[in-house]
Amino acid sequence: MTWLTWRQFRMQLLVALAALSAVTAYLLISGFQLHNAYNSALAGCPNGGCSPVSQLTTQYRFPYYLGTGLVLLVPGLIGAFWGAPLIARELETGTHRLIWNQSITRTRWLAVKLVFIGLAAAVTTGLLSLLVSWFASPLDRINNNRFTPLLFSARGVVPLSYAAFAVALGTCVGLLIRRSVPAMAATLAVFAAVQILVPLAVRPHLESPVRGDVALTSEAMKSASLIGFTNRTPAAPFVADLNVPGAWVLSGAEPVRTSSGQALTMATQPCATVSDAAAHDACLANADLHVTVSYQPADRYWAFQWSETAIFLALTAGLVGFSAWWLRGRLA
Amino acid sequence: MTAIIEARGLGKRYGRRQALSDCTLSVPAGRVVGLVGPNGAGKSTLLQLACGMLTPTSGSIEVLGERPASSTAQMARVGFVAQDTPTYAALSIADHLCLGAKLNPRWDAALAERRIQQLGLDPAQRAGRLSGGQRAQLALTLAVAKRPDLLLLDEPVAALDPLARRGFLQSLMEFVAETEATVVLSSHLVSDLERVCDHLIVLAASRVQAVGEIDDLLATHFRLTTARREADTLPAGMQVVQADHTDRQSTFVVRADTAVDDPSWVMEPLALEDLVLSYMTRARDTGADHRPVLETQR
Amino acid sequence: MIEFHIEARSGVAPYMQLVHQVRQALRLGLLSEGDRLPKVKDVAAKVAINPNTVLKAYRQLENEGLVSPKPGVGTFVTGTLGDMPRSEHEPLRQELQRWLARARGAGLDEESIEALFLNTFRSSTEEEK
């Protein structure tokens, strides 16, 4: 059965390997350049915060986004191109009636196929994820944002569980729809929906977020996504959306408060008279202002990685179980 | 006589559609059984129930003394050639044989290779590029090289041209002669079945209409032509399968142990095709009527 | 060795067709004592008929004393169907002619005579079985 699975699957596997090798070659080459550039830039900048270091993020933007994008995309593609046709193709061409009449149970047939494809998917995604993580590590260190939703999904161990889930999902959808192409489309759609839904609705609640005060220092202001007033009237609230290094900030724009907790407006902000931008920022940084943010702290990163991996593996197991049950009893 | 297939009150329902109902029959060992009936009569359903592709919704079926597909050992003893004889288009003939060898404990590699050679097929050829007849032969090879005790074939020759059909039946009969396996073959070509089968099951309107040895069926069915009379005026011992009346004449297809000579009628033997057709017509006309199933046994 | 064929539309049972063909071959001298009949498997494969049909035909021939099986070797012709001499046909033919004349005299037309003959012939062969 392993032989047959390999024989049926080797074409797809070779295509994937070819694509993966091309990406690998490209990322390896630009990766070595990036690592060298990063090391030499660091050497010339012992105290950090130098522009040659931060310039690397723009310089290597293309391979960075390509790699990250691929890690996000590949599990879905695997689900659609490997998972969905796995059974649908057999049902479509009627070959299930050939293979189920050999001396092998359907459960075993499914198990071998799934283990084989599942392993191939995990290895492919794992290698790609490792490669991209290695490539992007200097930039990730500079940005310090691996907990943000997109990067979280593209680093660490979660991509492997996505791949496993995608294979199981594709298989299951193929089993229900019984035709390859519609099954592929449906798999992509469902997988994309899950990938959007989980960071929005599930991941933030894996652990209750920490609410805490973040001082409006000049560093915090530099990395803030937003800082200013909601409109141009004197009563407009003074708000900021701050980033916490390495953490995942869940709250959006929050009011800026004084040390006594009073929310500021355009009229009451302490540095309204300073017109020069740099002096204005320095004035704010010295005014002992605070913003309350809710966030998932950086040290929860791996706990979150493992929790989400566990969730996806559980979903995978559920889908596999359902497929096996459906295959045994409901289908002919 | 050991029964290879034993069905009791067997039924299969797809949603609201009853594909097979109340099917009770037993297929004796060592026979070539023809399963004949109109399209949608439940032939495929019955065969798929027998090989375990389907599970019954009512009643029970035992094949070789066990529930179909209940164990791999049981599966190894049942060969099935599905309708349209599916094969893996991308795999070569040699790949198919390799597949069979790896998945079947009783695989007879020599037989498989000899058959492919006899058929003049190139083992390196992809199954997708074979003609319909060649593909059917490949599917048959896969099924017979399993060395099954029971071989089930679902309309294997329906899509084949006459030459390929003859070739297929020749191969099948050679297999039967070699192994003495039991074969159940569905078809709506009665002439083919008459040639290769010795036992017949007539299935129509999702029910078994008649079952028995072909010789017995032929010996006990007659066409009776007479002046117009009602079926119930015929002597006891004659079961009317079909009755046709004009204003003067009545024609009956009857089942009786022997021909009865009577100057008032002509009673002649019936060709198998006519026999089958009369049961099919009866099933169509009576619809869901629960007539007793005729069993001829001697 | 002889070759069999089956005529699907003849209305004669396949096994009887085989029996007829062997008898015919004996009559024509294509088969003679000591010849082997084709193996059941070969006939089944060649003609595409049920091996049981072939077996049944061979058994029938055996009952008629024309062939006998040697286990593991094959089925061999042991009898002859040397037709009786033409001269011995003649009295039978004359008898039949007289009978036909009587039947016509009784008012039977051609078809009734034929039906009567065939029915009687059939039932008498069945009784002999």
What layout of secondary structure does this protein have?
The complex is a heterotrimer of chains A (332), B (298) and C (129).
Chain A: H1 2-43, H2 51-59, H3 61-93, H4 96-99, H5 106-143, H6 149-154, H7 158-177, H8 180-202, E1 210-215, H9 218-223, E2 226-229, E3 238-241, E4 248-249, E5 254-257, H10 277-285, E6 290-296, H11 301-330
Antiparallel strand pairs in A: 1-6, 2-3, 3-5, 4-6, 5-6
Chain B: E1 3-14, E2 17-28, E3 32-36, H1 43-51, E4 58-63, H2 72-76, E5 78-81, H3 93-103, H4 109-118, H5 132-144, E6 150-154, H6 162-179, E7 182-187, H7 190-196, E8 199-204, E9 207-213, H8 214-219, E10 221-227, E11 239-245, E12 249-255, E13 265-269, H9 272-286, E14 294-295
Parallel strand pairs in B: 3-7, 3-8, 5-6, 6-7, 9-14
Antiparallel strand pairs in B: 1-2, 1-4, 8-9, 10-12, 10-13, 11-12
Helix pairs in contact in B: 4-5, 5-6
Chain C: H1 14-28, H2 40-47, H3 51-63, E1 67-70, E2 74-77, H4 86-105, H5 110-128
Antiparallel strand pairs in C: 1-2
Helix pairs in contact in C: 1-3, 2-3
Verbal overview:
The complex is a heterotrimer of chains A (332), B (298) and C (129). Chain A has helices spanning 2-43, 51-59, 61-93, 96-99, 106-143, 149-154, 158-177, 180-202, 218-223, 277-285, 301-330; strands at residues 210-215, 226-229, 238-241, 248-249, 254-257, 290-296. In chain A, strands 1, 2, 3, 4, 5 and 6 form a 6-stranded antiparallel β-sheet that branches. Chain A has 2 domains: 2-206 and 301-330, no CATH class; 210-299, no CATH class. By secondary structure, chain A is of the alpha+beta class. With 298 residues, chain B is of the alpha/beta class. Chain B folds into 2 domains: 3-214, Rossmann fold, CATH 3.40.50; 220-295, no CATH class. Chain B contains 9 helices and 14 strands. Helices cover 32% and strands 31% of the residues of chain B. Chains in contact: A-B, B-C. Chain A binds chain B through residues 1, 3-4, 7-8, 11, 93-95, 97-105, 329, 332, and chain B through 48, 51, 53-55, 69, 72-73, 75-76, 78-80, 82-84, 86-91, 95, 98-100, 102-106, 139, 142-143, 146.
